[in-house]
Amino acid sequence: MSRYILKRLLWMIPVVLGVAILIFCIMDFCPGDPAEIILGSGATEAELIAKREILGLNRPFFVRLVDYLQSVFLRFDFGTSYTFGTPVAQDLLSRLPRTLTIGFFGILISVAVGVPLGITAAIHQNGWGDRISMVIALVGVSMPGFWLGLMLVIVFALNLGWFPASGFETWQCFVLPCIANSMGGIATLARQTRSSMLDVIRADYIVTARAKGVAERIIRYKHMLPNALIPIITVVGNNFGHILGGAVVTESVFAIPGIGMYMISAVNSRDYPAVQGSVILLAIAFSLVMLLVDLVYAFVDPRIKAQYSNSAARR
Amino acid sequence: MKKTLSIILIIAMLMAVLAGCGGQATGAENTDPVDATKAQAEAPADGGAEEPAGPITVTVGINQDFSDMSPFGGQSGGKQYYKWLIYGYLALQDQSAQYQNVLAKRMEYVDELTLDVEIYDYIHDWAGNHITADDVMYSFQMAKDSGNFTGQGPSFIEKMEKLDDYTVRFYFTADALGGTLTYVTNVPITSQKAYEESGDNMAVNIIGCGKYKITDFVAGSTLTLEKVENHWQTEELWNLDQLAANPDKIIYKYIPEASQMSIALETGIIDVAGTVSGTEVSRFMDSNNNAVSGYTMGIIEPTQVTVLLFNCTEGSMFDNQALRQAVCYAINTDGIVQAVLGGRGYAANTYGSSAFPDAADKWAEEDYYDYNLELAKEKMKEAGYDPDGSLKVRLVVDRDSNRGKAAEIIASSLKAIGMEVEINAYETALFNTYKNEQDEWELLIDLKNGSGYLPNCWRSSFDANAFSNGLTVNFAKDEKLQELVMAAKTPATYSEETVDEFHYYLKEKAYGYGLFVAYNYAVALDGVDNIFVNRSNYICPGAFTYSTDFVGVAN
User: Fold this and answer.
1) ipTM greater than 0.90, yes or no?
2) Alpha-carbon torsion B530, B536, B537, B538, what sign?
3) Which tens digit of pLDDT belongs to each residue from B435-448?
C-alpha cells in the first residue's frame, strides 16, 4: 500500500509540471497587458514599455517559461504578485485555510444531506419520497451559486439576522458560504446515491438477506450502502474539486479572502504569478484528494484492498 | 422506525425554535439600522453628550482590494483610500487645488524648472527613524525606478541635489499644468533604513510617517489603522483637511460585491460604505433623493467621464465627420442618464467631466449634439449613408454595468438612423487590449480621466505624440487637433482660450463624444455627521466629523 501511495505521489510531479506549463502558456497567450492594468489608462506608451521591462515581460517566451519552471520546481518559489507586491506562496498559504474550510464543510454538508436524500429516493423508488428527493436535487443543481449566495444573504443575514452577511472572523460567517457551496454537491450526490442504491437493491445477496429475515435497517446500511459506495465516493472526490473551483464565486459574494477571490482578482488584473501559483496549488490539492479517494476505495471495498495486497505479494 | 422519526422531528423542531429565538434578538439589533443608530444615539446620553464616550473606531467598507501597500508599488486600487494616512508626502493639494506643505517646511522656486524643498528637521516615522534630505532623495529615486508613478510624477525629475541635511534641490525636465509642484507631491517619503530593513520592500511591514499606523492587516479582507501616539508634527502645522485624524482607529473592510456593501451597512458590519453606486444608493434614498432616516450621505462627483470614441482610421467608415455627427445627434444622453443612472449623474457637455476646474460653465448652456433624430438622419444622408438602411457597426465596451446598459441604449438609438450595432463586451484586460486594435471596433465606449486639469484628460486621448503610431487614441490624424491639444496642455500656452479652442474644435470634428458623468455615493450610519471627500474623490474617514454619541459598529 505504501508503495502505491509513493507511486501516486511521484505521479503528481508530471501532473503538476503539465499544469504549470499549460497555465503559463494560457496566461501568456491570453490577451491583456499586466503593465497597463498596474499603471492604469493614463500611462503613456513609454511608461508601459518601461514597466514591461521591469516585470520582465519583454523577454522571450521560452526564457520566461524555463525561468518560471526552475523557480517553482527547484526553488519552490511562485514569484511575487504584480498586484500586491508580496510573495505568491505567502499569499496562497494565508488564504488556503479559508478556502479549505469552505470546501471541507461544503463537502460535509453535501454528504450529510445528499446521501440520505439519495437513499430515501432509492428505497421509495417512484413514490413520494423519491419524487420529493429528486425535486430537491433538481432545484439544487439548477441554482447558480452566485444567486443562491445572495438569496441566503437576503433571507438569513438581512431579514432574519441569524448570520453575518460577509466576513470570516467567526464560525458563523462560514455557515452561509458553506451552504451555498454545498448545494450543487447535494444534488449530484443525491442522484448518484439513488442510482447506485438502485443497482444493488435487487441484487441476489439483498434478496437472500431479506429471506433470512435480516432487519430492513441493517440490510440498507450494512449490505446495500457499502456496496453502493464506490461511485458515491468518486462523486464526493469530484465534488471537492468543484467546490474548490466554486469557491471563486462563493468567496466573492461573501467577501472571504480565500484562494478563489485571490485568483479571480489575479485573472482580472493579469497577475501572472498569482494565477499560475493558485492554479498549481489547486492542482496539487485536487491530486491529493483523488489519491485519498483511491485509498478510501480500498477501505470500503475488500476486493480492491486484496488487489493491492496481491500485487505486493507477487513482488 | 416511527419512534426514531419522531425523535428526529422533535429535535429538529427544538433546534428551529431555539435558532429562531436567538435570531430574533440578533435580528432586532442588527437588521434595523434606524433602530440601531437610535440605540447608539441614546446610549451615551446617560454619560453626558459633551465628550465622546471613548475612543472612536470607524469601520469603512471599500470595494477595491488594498493592492500593493508598499510606498513605491502600484499606486492604483484600494491604496488610494489609505495611503495619505500612513505615508507622509512633501505637500498635497487642498480642496481649492492649492498646494499645502506637509513634510515640507518651505518650497521655493529657483527658476521655472528648479525647486528647493526644505523639510522639517524633526520628522520621524513610527519606528523613530529620523527623516532627512537623503531619505527624500532615496524615496524619489525609488519611485522613479519602480515605473509605478505615471503621469505628472517623478519621471519628470532630471536630477536631485542635496543642499543640506534637510534641503533638496529638484531639477525638472519640463513644466506641468498647475506647476512643477505636481511632480513632488505624489511620492511617499520613507526612511531608507526602514525600507531596507523591512525585508519585503514594505509590502506588508510598512513604516511611514503619517498620522496613522497599520496595526493589523489581513490580506484581501481588513486593514486596521490606529492613530500614532506622539506624532512628529504639531496639530497646528498638520492642518490639511484630508489628513485630519479624528477617529482613533479606522478599520477598512474590503467588500467587492456591490449589493453586499449595502447589506453590510444595513446589518451593522460597517459604519461607512465608501463607494455605493447610483443604482444601489436608492436603498438609502427617499423619493426626494435625500438620505433616509438613520443614514448620512455624501455625493462623489468624479472627474471620470464616459465617452464614445469613433475609429477614425484613414479610409474607414468613421473617417467621415458627418457620420460621426449623425451618431452623436442620434444619442439621447439625458435619456441615458435617466435610464442607466436613474438620474444620478449628468450628460457630459465636453469630452471630460465638469468637475475639472477649467471646464467652462458656458459649455453647459450650449448645444452639445443635443438629441435630434431628424438632424441625425440628415447627417447620415450627408455622409452618404441611407438612414433607413442597415449599416453594420461593432461597438466595444467593457463589463461595467453602467457602460454596458449605455451600449444597449446606444445600439437601439442607432437603429433609428439605419445602423445595426453589434455589441462586444469584454472584461477589463481584454478590453484594454482590443481598444488598441484598429480592426476590432468602429465604436468604443470608454472611461476617461486626467489629473487636475481638463487638458490632462484630453491629452491621454488626442496627443498623437504620446502614441508610437503617431495617431490619436482612436487612430485619427489631424494636425490642427494636435496643435490645439499641445497648446492646451503646455503650461506656457495653457489658458481659458486654448482650452476653449480645443473644446470647440473637438466638438465640431466629433472624434470623441462625452456621454455622461456618473455620481458615486458614500453612505454612513447616523453618527457620522459629515462625509469628507478629497480632491481625488476618495473618502477620508480621518476627516469625517463624528457626533459625540458616535459609537461605531466595532464597539
Assistant:
1) no
2) negative
3) 988 899 999 999 99
